[in-house]
Amino acid sequence: MTEARSTSSPVLDEDALRSLLQHARTIAVVGWSDKEDRSSHGIAGYLHSQGYDVVLVNPRLAGRMGPFGEPVYRTLADIPRHVDIVDLFRNASFVPGHTQEAIDIGAGAVWAQSGIVSEPARALAASHGIPYVQDMCISVAHLFLVRASAS
C-alpha cells in the first residue's frame, strides 16, 4: 500500500495516511447501515473498537440510537462537534455532494471506501486543501499503517 489511489495527483503516501489516521479522533460514517452484514456496520464497529469517536450518518435511520450510545444523524451538518474524517459508504454519484458537506462543516479529510471513485469529489477536496482518499478501506489502512507500526 504505497498511496491512496487516484487517477490524478496529489495523493497521500503511507506516512500521510498513517498521520491522518493517528491524529484523527472523530470519524463520521456516512451511509452507515444497521444491518450487521453490511461493510459500513462492521467497519464502524472496528473503528470504534480502536478508540475512535464514531458518529453515524444515515437519513433513513436518523434519530434512532446507534450502537455507540449516540443517535444516528441525518446529515453531517447535524453533528454537534468537529469531525476529523468523513468516511463515505455511498454510491460515487453522491460523493461530490458529501464532499461539499464535509467542506462546509470544516471536516479534516474525506475518505471514500473501497470501490468508490469520484474524480469530481477529489478535485473539489483538493481545491479546498482537504485530504481526500478514495477506493481504499479505512479499516484495512488502519490495520496495516497504524496497528502494524505500533507493534
Write up what this structure looks like.
The chain is an alpha/beta fold and 151 residues long. 37% of the residues are buried. Strands 2-1-3-4-5 form a 5-stranded parallel beta sheet, sandwiched between helices. The chain is built from 5 helices and 5 strands. Residues 1-9 have low confidence and may be disordered. It has a single domain (22-150), classed as Rossmann fold.
SSE layout:
Layout: H1 14-23, E1 26-30, H2 39-49, E2 53-57, E3 85-88, H3 95-105, E4 109-112, H4 119-127, E5 132-133, H5 138-150
Parallel strand pairs: 1-2, 1-3, 3-4, 4-5
Helix pairs in contact: 1-5, 3-4
Key descriptive features of the protein:
alpha/beta, disordered N terminus, 36% helix, globular, 151 residues, 5-stranded parallel beta sheet
Into which percent range does the helicity of residues fall?
A: 25-40%
The topology string of helices and strands comes to HEHEEHEHEH
CATH class: Alpha Beta
> What Rg do the Cα atoms give?
14 Å
Could you give the order of strands across the largest sheet? 2-1-3-4-5
**Structural class computed from helices and strand pairing:** alpha/beta
| Total strand segments | 5
Summed up:
By secondary structure, the protein is α/β, with parallel strands linked by helices. 36% of the residues lie in helices and 13% in strands.
